[in-house]
Amino acid sequence: MSRIPPGPPSGGTVGILFSGGADLIPRYTLPEMGAIWSEQSKFDSWLKVEIAACEAWARLGRIPKKDLDVIKKKARFSVKRIEAIERKTNHDLISFLTSVAENVGPSSRFIHLGLTSTDVVDTAQALQLTAASDLILSQLKKLREVLKRQARKHRYSMMIGRTHGVHAEPVTFGLKMALWYDETGRQIERLNQARDQMAVGMISGAVGTFANIDPRVEKHVCQILGLQPAPVSTQTLQRDRHAYFLSVLAVIASSLEKFATEIRNLQRTEILEAEEFFAEGQKGSSAMPHKRNPLTAERVAGLARVMRGYALTAQENVALWHERDITHSSAERIILPDATILLHYMLAKFIGVMEKLNVYPERMKRNIQLTRGLVSSQQVLLALVKRGYTREEAYAIVQRNALNAWKNEANFRQLIEADPDVTKMLTPEEIEECFNLSYHMKNVNYILKRAGIL
Questions:
Q1: How many angstroms from the chain centroid is the CA of residue 3?
Q2: What is the value of pTM for the model shown?
């Protein structure tokens, strides 16, 4: 037998294992998130709503105090009993109420007074979604702190910036982490907004008219549960709220995919500027003992696709017939628990990747030199313009030498130093300064301070 718990739902550990290779990071367990979506927690939340409604009716004189006392003392349920009743009724809320009534006795006639099923289900679900949001927000904040530490640690770890996959100009690994830190901050803001959209209750009756229930009941229930009353409702909370919430979760997952994809690229053998931690005893391939694969980053990238599918389903749920149908209900029983649990899982796994990430600054320096000075082409261009060439003239001179360096694998700086069109305008000291890579680092601290990292 179960009674309404005094605080947030809690429960046993729920383990989730996704296939796709060995994973020596400790098995992901989520007692809090798992408990939020358990049958026990769902019915506990329903009972919270029902008892709060009874309290409101008692204040309004509709339920005698002695009956309220009985309800609060005896209201309990059995999950197994609910399941047994539902096999006959084919209605989960009625089965729940029947189980509660069996324990309360005659005073149970006052439970669910004037309410419709969705008053209870949607309001209770709001409690679950806000609790799940809080756990995800906690993980996002943890990820942001990890990214901040990496940004500070590697603010001067110079690496090549790449556009279209091609070497561009130097950047730093710390700036890359600062970019992710800033993006994660926006995701926290978005999820807070989405949480507010979901922190809404509704106790307005069969079609939302309050015909059989006093609006003050809704006000009391929402106040007790920490929710805002929906300004207007039908028999449901409108599903644009849920679509927005799932869309935000999908956008967060897409950012994680973006971060994970970068790690995967940086771990490529030809680049190898950063890689996932590889534990002692870990195996990368059943056939090739040398393999060290970015399996967790790949897992995160793949699961983001699932998250976007959940968001699409939520958007399909917005259009319901008239004041209500239940086409959304069956889908939500899957997508709401799965999406929140899955995103929490993705965050936990990616935090582990970033906390233990292997970063190789020396390899970054070597990779900058792969193009033999070409990364300084813009500095040469700007120096020639400063000395009097038009931009078109300077561009043609620099590009001519750059193409020669590409085609013949020549040293770009040596070509520039030997070009009379350059040397007649620039001194050897000015040419040397064009190839000073520290030039690109002069505003690193400015950027990190602006991002709130320093």
A1: 33
A2: 0.90
